[in-house]
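Incident review: delayed structure delivery

Summary: a single-chain prediction request sat in the queue longer than the usual turnaround. Root cause was a stuck worker, restarted by the on-call engineer. No data loss occurred. The affected request and its eventual output are reproduced below so the record is complete for anyone auditing the incident later.

Affected input:
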Amino acid sequence: MNRSAATLAPVLRDLDGLEEKLLGAVAAVRQTKEVLRSLKFPAENNNKKIAPQTEPVLKSAKPEESHEETQTLSVTSPPAEEAAALSRLHQSAVSLTKSLHTELGEILRWNFYFDLSELLQGGVGSVLSSFQAVSSETVCAALSRFLSEGNKDDLEILLKV
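Output delivered after worker restart:
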């Protein structure tokens, strides 16, 4: 199919819709975080505070404030149910990200046209065809020389090509 501004317009429209859906998902994550941050739990002891994502420590109150000891409790990993849900969400996000990158790359590929005629007229084709694959034996020999004699010149050239 020939690509043009006319064929690109519906693609951009659909990408706008996709973007809105993804932003909606991000908004849902942010909203969930805000709701969770706003939760208040009854204190087990008036001197205990919950400090998530930190290591357990004992902190003494400053002497000028009071002589009471404030203990900071922490939980380093989420409860099993939340951990399972978070794991599934992370897996979904990774899968979605891979799929997005793949499909967006395809859309870009279908809409780019490269005119290589000028490069080919300039003789680039003959230069490219002169490159040859290096055998594994050649690389092994250069690596052996480098390891035994310290001669790295041949190995560097082979690794750059």
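Verification: The first strand starts at residue 48 and ends at 50.
Action items: add queue-age alerting; document worker restart procedure.
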